[in-house]
Structures are given as structure tokens and as C-alpha cells.
Amino acid sequence: MDKETELRVARHECGHAFVCLALRMKFNTVNIKQDGFYFGSFDMKGQRVDRSISVKQNILNSITISIAGHIADSIHFHMDPAELGQTTLRGSDKDMENIQRLTNALGIKQSDLENLMALAAKRAALILSTGWPLVNRLANELIKKRSLTYEESLTIIGA
Predict the structure, then answer these.
(1) Residue 157 CA to chain centroid, in angstroms?
(2) Buried-most residue among 9, 31, 111, 117 (CB within 10 A)?
(3) For residue range 113-142, what is the model confidence (pLDDT) as tens digits?
């Protein structure tokens, strides 16, 4: 597989991880694998909800982290996120499915979801655009190691 695809997938996954770190939330691992094509994963399973903030803030943080891979793709391709939504990036599609599943389970109305998504996209774009050199640092380490833990990620970005 080509190095450009590998870098894009690593940046996508590290977009999730970096936004998670910026929001002071923990994750388990961020991974990239090659099995004929590159694919990645970002794992937050089992992490506790932050009870010091509101339920709405926790939902917004979760959506912001989920949409961060899509926003990282848009930065990588120098494209508007809305234009990127018309491409065939499987990772972004999977992230959007996860957001839909979360909001459906919580009974969030479509109109509220659209407002939350717009706010989450702006938050993710601000975090990623200002921290893009650190996202790249994470992505380069992820390409070398294939898997990074939360603690390793903190060390890599110097937090």
C-alpha cells in the first residue's frame, strides 16, 4: 500500500486521539494495520463518563471525538468537510454511523443532532487546526509502532 494512504489513515485515527487528549478524556489505544489495505481503530471502550460536567457536555465531547477523524481527513486533503462527506472514506462513514447510533440510543432529535454536529465539527476543527503539528507527530509514531496507548500519546505530544 502506498505511504500517502498510510499517512491519511494514521492522521484520521490520531485526529480522534488528539481531540480526546485536548478534551482531557482518556482512551485505550489508537491503531493502524495493513491487511491488503490500511485501516485503523480508536478505542475508548470502558472509559468512564466525566461526572464533573453535564450529560449534554459529555455527549458533545463524544460527538466531537467521533467527528475528529473526518475533520482530520478534511485537513489532510485541504478540503471543506462538507465536500469530503461526498467521498468514499470508510473510516469517516463508520464514525458517522457511531454518532447516529449514540444519538438514537439517547433519543436525541434530528434537529438537535444537526446543531450538536455543527458545534462538534467546529470544536474539532479548531482543536485539530491549532494542534496539527502534534497530530502529525502522533501519526508518524503510530506508523512506526502500529499502536499507541493513551500514556504513550501523552508523552509523544509532550503533555
Answers:
(1) 16
(2) 9
(3) 889 999 999 999 999 999 999 999 999 999
